[in-house]
Write a structure and sequence with these properties.
globular; 10 helices; 383 residues; single chain; 25% strand; 2 domains; alpha/beta; 9-stranded mixed sheet; Rossmann fold; Dihydrodipicolinate Reductase, domain 2; binds alpha-L-sorbopyranose
Length: 383
Amino acid sequence: MRARKKLNIGLVGYGFMGRTHSNAFRKVNNFFDVAFEPVLKCVCARDGAKADAFAKQWGYESSETDWRRLIARKDIDLIDIASPNDTHADIAIAAAKAGKMILCEKPLARNAYQAEKMVSAVKKAGVANMVWYNYRRVPAVTLARQLIGEGRLGRIFHYRAKFLQDWTISKDLPQGGAGLWRLDVKVAGSGVTGDLLAHCIDTAMWLNGPIDKVTAMTETFIKQRKHTLTGKVQKVGIDDASAFLARFSNGSLATFESTRYARGHKALYTFEINGEHASIFWDLHDLHRLQYFDHRDEGKVRGWRSLHITDGDHPYMKNWWVPGLQIGYEHTFIHQVADFLEGLDTGKMPRPDFRDGLATDYVTDAVLASAKSGRWVTVKKPK
Ligand code: SOE
């Protein structure tokens, strides 16, 4: 086991993502031999009682109610942003100025304008940074990237992805507030485009390179909702469903679809990539499997192979149980922390960093702009 230096974590936000990140910080050293030990120093949330309760449950040494105070603390090395989207930019920019390392939940910001400022801030400060696009670190997805990188698929023709949910179908569901900020456009920036398609886009660009152009349509099925905090009925500003066609720089064509109105689907994220020689398909509901078809196989036995990604030679898997036993969703966050800590030691920082987060925000901005104008939109690329 390597000697470990302590890395003091200051977490902002105590929701679903605060829990996935805290779990990762706590477990990483049990499974990965990395040169740093995350120390749960402080959790910060506006509601002091809730922050205290979270600190107790997860083992944080202290709590704060103002993120500015958290950033000012000398005993914090890394700011982890797990609060709603409208807080990301201000916290990240202040943290960078204070010389803190930053991990930020996805999407990087409410829009690319804010994300650009965040990229400039971390660049100027020279601080380590990463965005929590966790699905890259599902071992099966990482393996897909390796297989594509080895050239096994040949020239790529098609990419298709979807992310379907069904939790907002009721018109009685309010918008805004702690649990439902994803429905409030002022806080979230957009609906499924920034929340769900952003995952599909991040994975897609990681596997298949940059996206050049998009043409999109979006819909808001329920036009008015009560605000959770004020009780006032307000216009709904988010997209409930979003679909777009895309052209990648490598010449391949793509379709992307996301909705929160697909009754029966809770978190169905799938992607498929078709090349000249081979195809790959992955499904979050069966996340430890990768479907692989290789046309070069002998005809008699040619067919889709269902690879069970649980063996020691599969990405990350030698750190877990014994071959054949699978892992799940929470492990993707542990893998991200492990890679980040390894990067701090080697100096080779892992991705996706803030620049990658900005690249995705450029695509989601283009999708929303295209849905508004009804035209193809050229996607900006980070400098
Ligand atoms: C939305 O319901 C959500 O929690 C997203 O915000 C996450 O990023 C996604 O991984 C699961 O669904």
